[in-house]
Amino acid sequence: LVYGHVIFTGAIDSSQFYDGKKLTMGNSQSLTLMAKQGEYYLETNDKKMSVKIEVKDIGVTNGVVHLVSNVLFADGYTIWNAVSDIPQLKRFYDIVNRHFPKLKDTLNMAAEKPSASMTVFLPSNEVFDRAADFVNSRLLLEPQVLDKALQGHVITGRFPSSRIEGEKVHLTFSGDVLKISRKDKYSSIKVIGGHVTSEIEVRDIFCSNGVIHIIDDLLHTPTRTIGREIKLREDLGYMQTLFEKVADTLYNLNAKNDKYTVFVPNNDAFSSLPWDTINKLLYWENWTKSPILDTSLILYVVNNNMMAHVVLANIPAVNGWIHIVDKILTVPYVNVADVLGSREEF
Q1: d(Cα 233, Cα 240) in Å, to the nearest integer?
Q2: Which of 153, 179, 212, 251 could be 205's S-S partner, Cβ–Cβ 3.0 to 4.6 Å?
Q3: Which of 156-170, 245-259, 290-304 comes out lowest in average pLDDT?
Q4: Where residue 122 sits, what CATH number does that domain have?
Q5: In angstroms, rounded to a whole number, what is the distance separating the alpha carbons of residues 333 and 278?
Q6: Is residue 249 domain-shared with residue 272, that is, in the same domain?
Q7: What is the DSSP letter of 172?
Q8: Are 267 and 193 within one domain?
Q9: Model pTM score
Q10: Which domain holds residue 277?
Q11: Are residues 183 and 84 in the same domain?
Q12: Arithmetic mean of pLDDT over the chain
Protein backbone atom coordinates (compact mmCIF):
# COMPACT_ATOMS: atom_id res chain seq x y z
CA LEU A 1 0.00 0.00 0.00
CA VAL A 2 2.80 2.42 0.89
CA TYR A 3 4.74 1.65 -2.29
CA GLY A 4 1.62 2.57 -4.25
CA HIS A 5 2.21 6.17 -3.20
CA VAL A 6 5.90 6.36 -4.16
CA ILE A 7 7.65 6.85 -7.52
CA PHE A 8 11.18 5.48 -7.37
CA THR A 9 12.28 6.60 -10.85
CA GLY A 10 12.77 10.32 -10.19
CA ALA A 11 11.42 13.50 -8.62
CA ILE A 12 8.33 14.77 -10.46
CA ASP A 13 7.27 18.26 -9.44
CA SER A 14 4.12 20.10 -10.56
CA SER A 15 5.92 21.74 -13.50
CA GLN A 16 5.91 18.27 -15.09
CA PHE A 17 2.18 17.69 -14.54
CA TYR A 18 -0.21 17.54 -17.47
CA ASP A 19 -3.64 16.07 -18.06
CA GLY A 20 -3.45 12.38 -18.91
CA LYS A 21 0.13 11.85 -17.73
CA LYS A 22 0.79 8.25 -16.64
CA LEU A 23 2.77 7.58 -13.47
CA THR A 24 4.23 4.19 -12.58
CA MET A 25 4.20 3.66 -8.85
CA GLY A 26 6.44 1.57 -6.61
CA ASN A 27 3.88 -1.25 -6.49
CA SER A 28 4.15 -1.58 -10.31
CA GLN A 29 0.65 -0.16 -10.80
CA SER A 30 0.00 3.03 -12.72
CA LEU A 31 -1.93 6.20 -11.95
CA THR A 32 -3.27 8.85 -14.32
CA LEU A 33 -2.97 12.58 -13.66
CA MET A 34 -6.21 14.44 -14.41
CA ALA A 35 -6.55 18.22 -14.63
CA LYS A 36 -9.98 19.53 -13.63
CA GLN A 37 -10.93 23.14 -12.91
CA GLY A 38 -7.36 24.13 -12.17
CA GLU A 39 -6.74 21.22 -9.80
CA TYR A 40 -4.92 17.93 -10.31
CA TYR A 41 -6.21 14.49 -9.36
CA LEU A 42 -4.72 11.00 -9.41
CA GLU A 43 -6.91 8.14 -10.61
CA THR A 44 -6.31 4.39 -10.61
CA ASN A 45 -6.64 2.45 -13.86
CA ASP A 46 -9.86 0.78 -12.77
CA LYS A 47 -11.24 4.26 -11.92
CA LYS A 48 -12.37 3.04 -8.51
CA MET A 49 -10.13 5.39 -6.57
CA SER A 50 -9.39 9.04 -7.17
CA VAL A 51 -7.57 11.53 -4.95
CA LYS A 52 -7.01 15.26 -5.16
CA ILE A 53 -3.48 16.64 -4.92
CA GLU A 54 -4.02 19.10 -2.08
CA VAL A 55 -0.48 20.47 -1.63
CA LYS A 56 2.17 20.37 -4.34
CA ASP A 57 5.95 20.56 -4.36
CA ILE A 58 7.10 20.12 -0.78
CA GLY A 59 10.86 20.14 -1.27
CA VAL A 60 13.02 17.55 0.48
CA THR A 61 16.67 16.59 0.06
CA ASN A 62 15.98 13.37 -1.84
CA GLY A 63 12.95 14.23 -3.98
CA VAL A 64 9.59 15.99 -3.80
CA VAL A 65 6.41 15.38 -1.78
CA HIS A 66 2.80 16.02 -2.79
CA LEU A 67 -0.01 15.73 -0.24
CA VAL A 68 -3.16 13.95 -1.45
CA SER A 69 -6.68 13.81 -0.06
CA ASN A 70 -6.98 10.08 0.49
CA VAL A 71 -5.30 6.67 0.44
CA LEU A 72 -4.79 5.02 -2.95
CA PHE A 73 -5.16 1.32 -3.75
CA ALA A 74 -7.28 0.69 -0.65
CA ASP A 75 -9.73 -1.42 -2.66
CA GLY A 76 -11.78 -2.53 0.32
CA TYR A 77 -12.15 0.89 1.91
CA THR A 78 -15.87 1.45 1.40
CA ILE A 79 -18.03 4.47 2.17
CA TRP A 80 -19.24 2.75 5.32
CA ASN A 81 -15.63 2.14 6.42
CA ALA A 82 -14.93 5.83 5.94
CA VAL A 83 -18.09 6.87 7.81
CA SER A 84 -17.02 4.78 10.79
CA ASP A 85 -13.62 6.54 10.79
CA ILE A 86 -14.76 10.17 10.40
CA PRO A 87 -15.56 11.98 13.69
CA GLN A 88 -17.81 14.52 11.90
CA LEU A 89 -20.15 11.68 10.88
CA LYS A 90 -20.45 9.91 14.23
CA ARG A 91 -24.15 10.80 14.69
CA PHE A 92 -24.97 9.51 11.21
CA TYR A 93 -22.96 6.35 11.88
CA ASP A 94 -24.70 5.67 15.21
CA ILE A 95 -28.20 6.13 13.77
CA VAL A 96 -27.65 4.02 10.67
CA ASN A 97 -25.69 1.32 12.48
CA ARG A 98 -28.44 0.91 15.07
CA HIS A 99 -31.62 1.44 13.07
CA PHE A 100 -31.09 1.08 9.31
CA PRO A 101 -29.13 -2.08 8.38
CA LYS A 102 -30.22 -1.93 4.73
CA LEU A 103 -28.65 1.50 4.26
CA LYS A 104 -25.52 0.30 6.07
CA ASP A 105 -25.23 -2.65 3.67
CA THR A 106 -25.69 -0.31 0.71
CA LEU A 107 -22.85 1.97 1.82
CA ASN A 108 -20.64 -1.05 2.50
CA MET A 109 -21.33 -2.66 -0.87
CA ALA A 110 -18.30 -3.17 -3.10
CA ALA A 111 -18.37 -1.47 -6.49
CA GLU A 112 -17.36 -4.12 -9.00
CA LYS A 113 -17.17 -1.48 -11.75
CA PRO A 114 -17.17 2.34 -11.82
CA SER A 115 -20.81 2.50 -12.91
CA ALA A 116 -21.77 0.79 -9.64
CA SER A 117 -20.19 3.55 -7.56
CA MET A 118 -22.27 6.01 -5.57
CA THR A 119 -22.02 9.54 -4.22
CA VAL A 120 -23.38 10.32 -0.77
CA PHE A 121 -24.15 13.67 0.83
CA LEU A 122 -24.07 13.03 4.56
CA PRO A 123 -25.23 15.44 7.30
CA SER A 124 -22.63 16.35 9.90
CA ASN A 125 -22.95 15.84 13.66
CA GLU A 126 -24.11 19.45 14.07
CA VAL A 127 -27.13 18.78 11.85
CA PHE A 128 -28.31 15.86 13.98
CA ASP A 129 -27.61 17.76 17.20
CA ARG A 130 -29.65 20.72 15.96
CA ALA A 131 -32.54 18.47 14.92
CA ALA A 132 -32.27 16.05 17.85
CA ASP A 133 -35.93 16.40 18.91
CA PHE A 134 -37.18 15.69 15.41
CA VAL A 135 -34.77 12.81 14.79
CA ASN A 136 -35.57 11.10 18.09
CA SER A 137 -39.30 11.51 17.48
CA ARG A 138 -39.03 10.01 14.00
CA LEU A 139 -36.93 7.10 15.24
CA LEU A 140 -39.56 6.36 17.88
CA LEU A 141 -42.77 6.89 15.90
CA GLU A 142 -41.94 6.83 12.17
CA PRO A 143 -38.48 5.35 11.55
CA GLN A 144 -39.40 4.65 7.93
CA VAL A 145 -39.68 8.40 7.29
CA LEU A 146 -36.12 9.04 8.45
CA ASP A 147 -34.87 5.93 6.64
CA LYS A 148 -36.35 7.17 3.36
CA ALA A 149 -34.94 10.65 3.93
CA LEU A 150 -31.42 9.30 4.52
CA GLN A 151 -31.60 7.10 1.42
CA GLY A 152 -32.45 10.33 -0.39
CA HIS A 153 -28.86 11.46 0.28
CA VAL A 154 -27.42 8.73 -1.98
CA ILE A 155 -27.15 8.85 -5.79
CA THR A 156 -25.65 6.51 -8.35
CA GLY A 157 -22.32 7.48 -9.90
CA ARG A 158 -19.07 9.01 -8.74
CA PHE A 159 -19.36 12.80 -8.51
CA PRO A 160 -16.35 14.51 -6.95
CA SER A 161 -16.58 18.29 -6.70
CA SER A 162 -14.54 18.63 -9.89
CA ARG A 163 -17.44 17.06 -11.84
CA ILE A 164 -20.11 19.33 -10.39
CA GLU A 165 -20.90 22.20 -12.74
CA GLY A 166 -24.09 24.16 -13.30
CA GLU A 167 -27.30 22.55 -12.09
CA LYS A 168 -28.06 18.83 -12.37
CA VAL A 169 -30.94 16.71 -11.12
CA HIS A 170 -30.38 13.14 -9.90
CA LEU A 171 -32.67 10.35 -8.76
CA THR A 172 -31.75 9.11 -5.30
CA PHE A 173 -31.88 5.61 -3.82
CA SER A 174 -35.18 6.55 -2.16
CA GLY A 175 -36.76 7.53 -5.47
CA ASP A 176 -36.77 11.22 -4.54
CA VAL A 177 -35.06 13.89 -6.60
CA LEU A 178 -31.82 15.59 -5.58
CA LYS A 179 -30.67 18.83 -7.21
CA ILE A 180 -26.98 19.75 -7.15
CA SER A 181 -25.91 23.22 -8.26
CA ARG A 182 -22.74 25.26 -8.53
CA LYS A 183 -22.36 28.62 -10.29
CA ASP A 184 -18.63 28.27 -10.98
CA LYS A 185 -15.54 26.56 -9.61
CA TYR A 186 -15.14 29.26 -6.95
CA SER A 187 -18.72 28.97 -5.65
CA SER A 188 -20.09 26.81 -2.90
CA ILE A 189 -21.94 23.65 -3.92
CA LYS A 190 -25.61 23.51 -2.98
CA VAL A 191 -27.53 20.26 -2.57
CA ILE A 192 -31.33 20.51 -2.56
CA GLY A 193 -33.80 17.79 -1.63
CA GLY A 194 -37.44 18.16 -0.64
CA HIS A 195 -37.18 21.98 -0.69
CA VAL A 196 -34.36 21.79 1.87
CA THR A 197 -31.17 23.50 0.70
CA SER A 198 -27.79 22.50 2.12
CA GLU A 199 -24.18 23.30 1.31
CA ILE A 200 -21.22 20.97 1.11
CA GLU A 201 -18.89 21.63 4.04
CA VAL A 202 -16.30 18.92 3.34
CA ARG A 203 -15.72 17.73 -0.22
CA ASP A 204 -14.28 14.69 -1.89
CA ILE A 205 -13.69 11.90 0.59
CA PHE A 206 -12.83 9.19 -1.93
CA CYS A 207 -13.63 5.56 -1.21
CA SER A 208 -13.42 2.33 -3.16
CA ASN A 209 -17.16 2.38 -3.91
CA GLY A 210 -17.79 6.09 -4.25
CA VAL A 211 -17.39 9.60 -2.87
CA ILE A 212 -18.54 11.25 0.37
CA HIS A 213 -19.44 14.92 0.74
CA ILE A 214 -20.39 16.23 4.19
CA ILE A 215 -23.32 18.69 4.15
CA ASP A 216 -24.86 21.11 6.63
CA ASP A 217 -28.50 19.98 6.64
CA LEU A 218 -30.82 16.98 6.56
CA LEU A 219 -32.66 16.71 3.23
CA HIS A 220 -36.12 15.48 2.19
CA THR A 221 -37.71 15.97 5.58
CA PRO A 222 -38.51 19.02 7.72
CA THR A 223 -36.34 19.68 10.75
CA ARG A 224 -37.02 23.40 11.19
CA THR A 225 -40.00 25.51 12.18
CA ILE A 226 -41.68 27.87 9.72
CA GLY A 227 -40.04 30.85 11.38
CA ARG A 228 -36.59 29.31 11.13
CA GLU A 229 -37.14 28.20 7.52
CA ILE A 230 -38.21 31.70 6.44
CA LYS A 231 -35.21 33.22 8.20
CA LEU A 232 -32.79 31.01 6.26
CA ARG A 233 -34.18 31.79 2.80
CA GLU A 234 -32.51 34.72 1.05
CA ASP A 235 -35.50 35.27 -1.25
CA LEU A 236 -37.75 36.07 1.74
CA GLY A 237 -35.68 38.84 3.30
CA TYR A 238 -38.45 41.45 3.50
CA MET A 239 -40.89 39.04 5.11
CA GLN A 240 -38.26 37.98 7.62
CA THR A 241 -38.22 41.57 8.83
CA LEU A 242 -42.01 41.88 8.83
CA PHE A 243 -42.52 38.70 10.81
CA GLU A 244 -39.89 39.75 13.32
CA LYS A 245 -41.60 43.14 13.76
CA VAL A 246 -45.25 42.18 14.08
CA ALA A 247 -46.04 38.50 13.73
CA ASP A 248 -44.80 37.40 17.12
CA THR A 249 -47.46 39.58 18.74
CA LEU A 250 -50.17 37.43 17.10
CA TYR A 251 -48.64 33.99 16.72
CA ASN A 252 -45.34 32.22 17.13
CA LEU A 253 -44.08 30.68 13.90
CA ASN A 254 -41.42 28.86 15.90
CA ALA A 255 -43.94 27.04 18.10
CA LYS A 256 -43.42 23.34 17.35
CA ASN A 257 -46.80 22.24 18.70
CA ASP A 258 -48.87 24.64 16.57
CA LYS A 259 -49.73 24.10 12.91
CA TYR A 260 -49.75 26.88 10.30
CA THR A 261 -50.05 27.34 6.57
CA VAL A 262 -48.20 30.49 5.55
CA PHE A 263 -48.31 32.27 2.18
CA VAL A 264 -45.11 34.31 2.10
CA PRO A 265 -44.45 37.01 -0.52
CA ASN A 266 -40.94 36.83 -1.94
CA ASN A 267 -38.60 39.80 -2.27
CA ASP A 268 -39.79 40.47 -5.83
CA ALA A 269 -43.29 41.09 -4.50
CA PHE A 270 -41.96 44.17 -2.73
CA SER A 271 -40.04 45.53 -5.71
CA SER A 272 -43.05 47.42 -7.11
CA LEU A 273 -43.83 49.13 -3.81
CA PRO A 274 -42.51 52.57 -2.86
CA TRP A 275 -40.15 52.55 0.10
CA ASP A 276 -42.62 54.62 2.10
CA THR A 277 -45.21 51.87 1.74
CA ILE A 278 -42.73 49.18 2.76
CA ASN A 279 -41.81 51.16 5.86
CA LYS A 280 -45.47 51.55 6.81
CA LEU A 281 -45.99 47.80 6.47
CA LEU A 282 -43.59 47.31 9.36
CA TYR A 283 -46.19 48.84 11.68
CA TRP A 284 -49.25 47.09 10.24
CA GLU A 285 -50.77 44.28 12.27
CA ASN A 286 -53.97 43.41 10.36
CA TRP A 287 -52.75 40.08 9.02
CA THR A 288 -55.49 37.92 7.48
CA LYS A 289 -55.84 34.39 6.19
CA SER A 290 -56.41 33.83 2.47
CA PRO A 291 -58.38 31.18 0.54
CA ILE A 292 -56.50 29.21 -2.09
CA LEU A 293 -57.71 28.50 -5.63
CA ASP A 294 -56.54 26.02 -8.25
CA THR A 295 -56.64 27.61 -11.71
CA SER A 296 -55.47 25.48 -14.66
CA LEU A 297 -53.16 23.50 -12.37
CA ILE A 298 -51.38 26.70 -11.32
CA LEU A 299 -51.90 27.68 -7.71
CA TYR A 300 -53.06 31.16 -6.83
CA VAL A 301 -54.00 32.82 -3.57
CA VAL A 302 -56.82 35.35 -3.62
CA ASN A 303 -57.43 37.94 -0.92
CA ASN A 304 -58.61 41.55 -0.80
CA ASN A 305 -59.44 41.34 -4.53
CA MET A 306 -55.79 40.62 -5.30
CA MET A 307 -54.43 37.43 -6.86
CA ALA A 308 -50.94 36.07 -6.24
CA HIS A 309 -49.23 33.21 -8.04
CA VAL A 310 -47.77 30.50 -5.82
CA VAL A 311 -44.26 30.36 -7.27
CA LEU A 312 -43.02 27.65 -4.90
CA ALA A 313 -45.42 25.40 -3.02
CA ASN A 314 -45.21 22.83 -0.26
CA ILE A 315 -42.07 23.78 1.63
CA PRO A 316 -42.37 21.56 4.70
CA ALA A 317 -41.68 22.63 8.25
CA VAL A 318 -42.16 20.79 11.52
CA ASN A 319 -45.11 23.04 12.36
CA GLY A 320 -46.79 23.43 8.98
CA TRP A 321 -46.27 24.41 5.36
CA ILE A 322 -44.87 27.41 3.52
CA HIS A 323 -46.02 28.55 0.07
CA ILE A 324 -44.09 31.40 -1.57
CA VAL A 325 -46.20 33.87 -3.57
CA ASP A 326 -45.27 36.67 -5.94
CA LYS A 327 -47.52 39.45 -4.59
CA ILE A 328 -48.49 41.03 -1.30
CA LEU A 329 -52.16 40.20 -0.88
CA THR A 330 -53.21 42.97 1.49
CA VAL A 331 -51.38 46.28 1.27
CA PRO A 332 -53.25 48.84 3.39
CA TYR A 333 -51.22 51.89 2.43
CA VAL A 334 -51.17 51.64 -1.36
CA ASN A 335 -52.97 54.54 -3.01
CA VAL A 336 -53.22 55.85 -6.57
CA ALA A 337 -50.08 57.95 -6.18
CA ASP A 338 -48.13 54.92 -4.94
CA VAL A 339 -49.23 52.85 -7.92
CA LEU A 340 -48.45 55.60 -10.43
CA GLY A 341 -45.04 56.15 -8.88
CA SER A 342 -44.10 52.49 -8.88
CA ARG A 343 -44.96 51.55 -12.48
CA GLU A 344 -42.66 52.38 -15.39
CA GLU A 345 -45.48 52.81 -17.89
CA PHE A 346 -46.73 55.82 -15.90
Answers
A1: 9
A2: 212
A3: 290-304
A4: 2.30.180.10
A5: 9
A6: yes
A7: B
A8: no
A9: 0.69
A10: 226-325
A11: yes
A12: 82
